[in-house]
Amino acid sequence: MNLEDVARRAKVSTATVSRVLNNVGQVKSSTRARVLRAVEELRYSPNLNARFLASGRSRTLGMVVSNLENPFFLDIFRTVEADAHRRGYEVLVANTDYRPQRLVSSVRLMLGRRVSGLAVIVSEMKPSLIPELAESGLPVVFYDVGVAKPNITNIKVDYPQGMRRIIEYLYGLGHRRMAFIGHHPTLGPLHDRKRTFLEAAADYAPNVQVMTVASADGPVGGQNATREILQSGFRPTAITCVNDFMAMGVIRELHAQRIAVPDDISVTGFDNIGLAEFIAPALTTVHIPREEIGHLITEALIPSRRGRQERGHEVLLETELVVRESTAPSAAHSFASDPDFL
Amino acid sequence: MNLEDVARRAKVSTATVSRVLNNVGQVKSSTRARVLRAVEELRYSPNLNARFLASGRSRTLGMVVSNLENPFFLDIFRTVEADAHRRGYEVLVANTDYRPQRLVSSVRLMLGRRVSGLAVIVSEMKPSLIPELAESGLPVVFYDVGVAKPNITNIKVDYPQGMRRIIEYLYGLGHRRMAFIGHHPTLGPLHDRKRTFLEAAADYAPNVQVMTVASADGPVGGQNATREILQSGFRPTAITCVNDFMAMGVIRELHAQRIAVPDDISVTGFDNIGLAEFIAPALTTVHIPREEIGHLITEALIPSRRGRQERGHEVLLETELVVRESTAPSAAHSFASDPDFL
DNA sequence: AAGATTGGCGTAAGCGCTTGCAAGATTACC
DNA sequence: GGTAATCTTGCAAGCGCTTACGCCAATCTT
Predict the structure, then answer these.
(1) d(CA B183, nearest CA chain A) in Å
(2) pLDDT beyond 80 at A32
(3) Where does the pLDDT of residue A304 fall: very low under 50, low under 70, confident under 90, or very high at 90 and above?
């Protein structure tokens, strides 16, 4: 079942069928109708592989993410997909599970499919990939890693700012013993986030005791990390998580251990995913504008009709502290004796 | 940058390069090495559109789901993807947001890409799609809809059984006023689930008052539905949700309204998603074997090396009640005066 | 009314790859 | 050392589509 079958049935050439299907060139409306009817009757569905090959463009975007399970990534994907559809593009998504090897193979796959733009929203990164993509000339967006190049747009979120907001907030509440829960601490961006936390703590919260632990991304990881902290003997008054998804597990585990949140321990997340409002207590977190990220990605990857493709550049997004119910003044801290207390 | 460039550089023909790349036929190991080096040096990445077109197979599975945000679907996807990778296949996923129109266009897209198998895990269904796919001869799996055909495998979960388990369990706990929360009540399978609930209630739980409401899938929908119930004046002692994802919102809203779960109202979900354990109180639900579903899908879509493709058939999966913390005996019910009470 | 446009369509040359076929190069065998 | 068997490799015909290019007929000029 191919163009030729349709052409024969409609008594035209394949060229004409192609023109009708792509709405290009001039076709008499009566022939157009004949063609469409033939398409209908044969239930013809064009071979996109052939189409992409012949035309040299695929109107398809690729997106590679570290963990689709984490709503953070999914939210971005959904925005990109919605934007892309509006412009007549499709989007292909691949999941890496934080494995560099899968990242490489996913990117290769996308390149092999000749996507017209590629978004790489991952924490793991194979360094060799950046120059390779830069040279390819393909429009690319990196999130939180790499530097802008002519064809590479770079979206970053001001994590240090967000961390600072959390630390200052917690410090202001009297917290002096804090724990930081992350995941994949060996991966660049995630390691940076931990470092950022420690630096912010050192800078803005003098005489604070700090502990860091790591586990897998997700609620189960948060749960395990919490157990580890509690078993260590260190008793923080606040636990800061690298993301909301892990924080869900933290809150659950504290609850299971009959430790009150926020009365005994305050908990913070990062990202402000939708679920953050649906756990009890609702999670205090830092908002990352995921919709904006999605829009930026689409803008960077799809050439706008008027004017040319925006050249690669760098964007730094601001964060915002969202205070909910999972944080409170530290019970352990006596504000009376606190010189910072006004 | 194509096969010819590589061939020229390695001083062989494109045929030989192709054989090396596909590990097929005999190639002297020295030439193989030359070719691989050329590939490396040129950073050559084969054009998959051309490859699929020429070879007529794509080693790609397509999967269409209603709502990727709901972990239920994501879990299935992850299993399928893992299985598929193990067999050297890729999987493309599309999201429909429960919109039949998107279902149709997603399926068309998959067909256009000439996937070698297609899984349709959706609640919405355009009836015309079933015969169309049946005729196409493409291996297809439907979840919860349609009937088996030579090339169509049908996976169903015994929802009536699951509902019965819930109802009997709740009835046994003394609940006599129940509410059912669903979403998209006009879509076949979801409507059936509601009906199933009502029938099971009628059959197994005499003299029970029942109310049903519907909202969007997800926690927000569960929240809204709960508000609606409470505002209606009907005061159920148990709320049964069509899935866990909505139940999360229900529990959250009851908590916000200072209604104790399970003391004042018991809540049940369906699916047994991972998050069900991470909300407080942990959700009583019905387990659906998502991993098994994933395996079944892969088995049905990928021809096994030995033996032929399993022909399309129908599978009915059993469910299992998972009791956690969100359910308890009805406070409103006096067991002393209950004739059922032993 | 004859030449100049334009609209509508077909011809055919690719797009980059796979693969059946057959030729040339090696190796095996007696 | 000669023939047969086996390896290697190249040639070239597609896969199903898009898209110059050009032809013919219809319409427009003056």
Answers:
(1) 18
(2) yes
(3) confident
CB B265 within 8 A of CB B245: no
State the amino acid at position B299 in one-letter form.
E
Beta strands in B38-164 (DSSP E): 60-65, 90-95, 117-121, 140-143, 152-157
Residues B72-106 as b/e (b if ≥16 CB within 10 A, e otherwise) read bbbbbbbbbbebbeeeebbbbbbbbbbeeebbbeb
| Token digits of residue B51 | 């490859």
Which is it for the CA torsion A74, A76, A79, A83, positive or negative?
A: negative
Residue pair A186/A256 in contact by the 8 Å Cβ criterion: no
Q: What is the spatial distance between Cα A163 and Cα A199, in angstroms, rounded to a whole number?
A: 9
pLDDT of A310 reads 63
What's the gap in Å between the CA of A340 and the closest CA on chain B?
34
Does nucleic acid strand C have an atom less than 7 angstroms from the CB of A49? no
Asked if residue A117 lies in contact with residue A61, where contact means CB atoms within 8 angstroms, the answer is: yes
Q: Nearest nucleotide (C1') to the CA of residue A56?
A: C15
DSSP state letter for A330 = -
Per the CB < 8 A criterion, the answer to whether A155 and A189 are in contact is no
Length of chain B as a residue count: 342
Residue with tokens 């996807």: B77
- Whether the Cβ atoms of residue A35 and residue A12 lie closer than 8 Å to each other: yes
Which DSSP symbol is given to B127? T
In tens, the pLDDT along B116-127 reads 999 999 999 888
pLDDT of residue A208: 87
Q: pLDDT (tens digit, 9 = 90+) per residue, A162-184?
A: 999 999 999 999 999 999 999 99
pLDDT of residue A306: 59
Cα–Cα distance, B145 to B314 (Å, whole number): 11
Q: Is the peptide bond before A189 cis (omega within 30 degrees of 0)?
A: no
Of A266, A282, A277, A283, which is closest to residue A327 (Cα–Cα)? A266
Contact between A140 and A117 (Cβ < 8 Å): yes
Helix, coil or strand: residue B302: coil
| B159 token code pair | 């929802």
Find the mean pLDDT for residues A117-139: 92
In the numeric block, the tokens 């008499």 are attached to A28
User: Pick from A85, A83, A77: which is nearest to A121 by CA?
Assistant: A77
**Unique residue bearing structure tokens 């978004």:** A119
Q: How many angstroms separate the CA atoms of B318 and B159, rounded?
A: 8
Say which of A69, A92, A279 has its CB closest to residue B74. A69
Helices assigned H by DSSP within B173-216: 188-204
* Helix (H) / strand (E) containing A336: none
Chain B residues in contact with A58 by the CB 8 A cut-off are 49
Asked if residue A246 has pLDDT above 50, the reply is: yes
B304's tokens: 């096994």
User: Which two three-digit tokens encode residue B215?
Assistant: 């909202």
Sign of CA dihedral A10, A11, A13, A16: negative
